[in-house]
Amino acid sequence: MGSRHGRPEMRKNRNAWLLRTLLLAAFVLPLLVARSASGQDEVNLSVQARVSPRIPIAFKPFVPREGTAFDAAVQDTVNQVLMRDLSFSGVFAVRDLSIPARIGADEGSPVLTESDGDTTYVFMDAAGEVDLELLRKLSVQVMVSGTYEVSGPRVEISVRLTDLGTRRTIMEKGYAAFDLTLRRIVHLMADDIVFQLTGDRGTAQTRVVFISQRSGAPELYISDYDGFNVRQLTRDGARKYSPNWSPDGTKIAYTSYRDGPHELYILDLQSGETGKVPFGGRTVLSPRWSPDGRHLILSLVTEGVSRLYISTLDGSGLIPLATGYGINVSPSWSPRGDQVVYMSDRLTQKHLYVINIDGSNDHRITFEGGYNGSPAWSPRGDRISFVGGDLAQGRRGGPRRVFNIYTCDVNGSNLVKLTGVRGPEGDNVNPTWSPDGLHILFSSDRARSGEYQIYRMSWNGDDVHPVITEGNNRQPSWGPRPE
Fold this sequence. Notes:
Layout: H1 14-26, E1 55-59, E2 63-64, H2 72-88, E3 92-96, E4 100-101, E5 111-116, E6 119-124, H3 132-137, E7 142-151, E8 154-163, E9 168-178, H4 182-198, E10 207-212, E11 219-224, E12 231-232, E13 240-245, E14 251-256, E15 263-268, E16 274-277, E17 283-289, E18 295-302, E19 305-312, E20 319-320, E21 328-333, E22 339-347, E23 349-356, E24 363-364, E25 371-377, E26 383-393, E27 399-409, E28 416-417, E29 428-433, E30 439-444, E31 453-458, E32 465-468, E33 473-478
Parallel strand pairs: 1-3, 1-7, 2-7
Antiparallel strand pairs: 4-5, 5-6, 7-8, 8-9, 10-11, 10-33, 11-12, 13-14, 14-15, 15-16, 17-18, 18-19, 19-20, 21-22, 22-23, 23-24, 25-26, 26-27, 27-28, 29-30, 30-31, 31-32
């Protein structure tokens, strides 16, 4: 597991080097694995989740540039979006300096505090001066601060990163936005901060495509990674399945009943046009783009048997991959494009297999439980997320299968259960990785509303947050970073 998060490129800045060292140490903790020893006919997946520390940084709220006017809407958007992006990065524990209290303030005026156990720390006085020495004592190494200026529809923002060890500025950068682009520019700022401090590109500018029935029929929708700026992409009313982003973020492949059952379509996001890829009337399942964007891997159904093929984007030049008897579906490429993980029921139960793209070394990697499907290979290359079905007591006394999300090493070892660890959380399905491999989006009916919603969690199962909650939403696909 020492290679789980790679080795970021070293930079000259001392503080950045220290942050990366701590980050690597946080992610090489050993997995806690508890294999099931049940004597039942069907073995349930039984493992433990793990936790990892984050690097503490301080966030001082952005304020108007000296001599300029206060704008509540702009200030709230900048502060809320940036602090949320940094918290959701999976890298930082953001110490918010903007919590008002009346402890130690002259004449009852508010100061900014945070309670830590039995001790209350006062980080800023009424004039906004920060106690940097106190922050350093609390192991806070970097402070984020900034200003903004509003001029009509234009907003200028400046951000500063301060090394609290040397009190030197390690990053200072300006951004320009307009009303409609403010959130997008703040996302860009967050990604710049992540890169400056870790050497790894952030994911705040990424987008998500998903299927929603909020308008009645299942249609494709797109949103920012945090669930904002939702936009409908299709309007034909036909059933749709398995949307998947192209690596360059310009196209989405999916299957639909628009002209027939489970046919393949490719939506061009730049032109808005949708084209059908013909396969002689055969049913197409779970298309997935190759890492280089030149091919798709998909499952074609013939006489009840589904086989995996690698196809060019126009449907010509089919190359058979997994062609054994039974169901062979849900493929996912390795980041290098030299292997594929998929689900097969060739031995009656549904399990995961890995195969080289030349058809060699086709081997099974899961052996526990009776259902393991929907695999997704981490962009970092070392883990595979998937849906495992556990038998649980049904509402009417009989057993029913409950679906949870797991991860394992690419050889099937080091199994980690991410959902349902602390008790029943409904069914959790459709995992999809963030481009940096630090987060997973998934669909869940844990809200008990009768509908599925889309949630995000850290790669280790921590920090679960709802992302898309309006209507019935399933099958998210996390898009790539913008070029």
